[in-house]
Amino acid sequence: MRLRLDRHAAASLPAQLKAQIRYQVLTGLLPAGQRLPPVRTLAGFLRINRNTVARAYAELEAEGVVDARPGRGTVVVWTPPPAHAARALAAQIDRLLTTAAEAGVTVADVQAMLAVRARPRRPGVRARPRLGFVECNPVDLTYFGRLVREATDVPVVPVLLDDLAGRPDDVDLVATTFFHVEEVRRRCAGVEVVGLMALPDVRALDELARLPRRSRVALVCATAEGVRSKARSLAAVGLRPPRLRTATLAAPATLAATLADADVVLAAPRVLARIRDLVPPRARTIPFASVLSEGAVAVLQERIAA
Asked: What is the full DSSP assignment across 93-134?
């Protein structure tokens, strides 16, 4: 996979990376079933931040180009039109860019014109709105972004909170989890922001309630916000410190010490996949994913339809 990023280009690094991967899928260089390099590996190869690769992968997944699942990695799932059609289209684009350059029109101007022309409005047909979804880390961004896309069936633009400096480009509505709703509203003045309630999987809570009282449980989340949220839910089934110890992926030393003493390890499926090698053989693992509340999804669907 040949990739070349320009730190001085107008387009952001995630946008460049996403565009180049999508182009290689479109032209058949990356066929369906091809596994992409892990985030850490590709980031190291390109000498860029892992969040840059994670964001590009998340946006490609949101657009249905790739699929990321624990244990499988990130795999190309989109089957594009025949390669010869893509090559013919690429030749037309080259001619367009040549004509634009001769007329003094910049690439940025061409991109803007394409963005407008690509969204025609037919009489009586309402365009599908574009939804921006904001989360604070790549793991939750990918996971909840998929849930939102499946629940709403509209294009979803994933945005990391750290990258949010204003209204995301070309979106009609923004959604985020309640942890971040006030901050997102402050940063996105002028656009409606819908807060979504994320709830723990009831089946996992039931399984935890049946654990022996002497069981030592390790709760591992991608972020401190995730730990605080899930710890409140666990308290409802009687699971509190000192039986419950917590750690995040951002603190490797604490994570290793917490897992070493655990009888049961509790984490979202994606997090479990990342810490699998650190979990003691004797420890039992319980997937503990969050789900979007039906009420929150109904409100979001209502706002999309408005």
From this structure: HHHHHHHHHHTT--HHHHHHHHHHHTS---TT-PPPP-EEEE
Structure tokens at 57: 């992968």
* CA nearest neighbour of 57 among 167, 139, 176: 139
For residues 17 and 1, give the distance between their C-alpha atoms in angstroms, rounded to a whole number.
11
Q: What single-letter amino acid sits at 47?
A: R
CA distances from 133 to 161, 288, 306 (A): 9, 22, 18
Cβ–Cβ under 8 Å, residues 168 and 295 = no
Q: Are 31 and 43 in contact (CB under 8 A)?
A: no
Q: What is the pTM of this model?
A: 0.52
Residue 168 gets which letter from DSSP? Answer: P
The encoded tokens of residue 82 equal 């025949």
- Identify which of 15, 2, 30 has the alpha carbon closest to the alpha carbon of residue 107: 15
Distances (CA, A) of 207 to 13, 213, 255: 43, 13, 23
Our CA angle for 142, 296, 127, nearest 5°, is 75
Instruction: Look at strands 290-292 and 198-200 and give their pairing.
Output: antiparallel
- Which has the closest alpha carbon to 59: 157, 164, 165, 167? 157
pLDDT per position as a tens digit, 158-214: 888 888 887 776 788 899 988 888 999 999 888 889 999 887 777 887 888 888 888
Structure tokens at 46: 């390109």
DSSP structure class, residue 236: T
Considering only residues 125 and 40, tell me which one the structure prediction assigns the higher pLDDT.
40
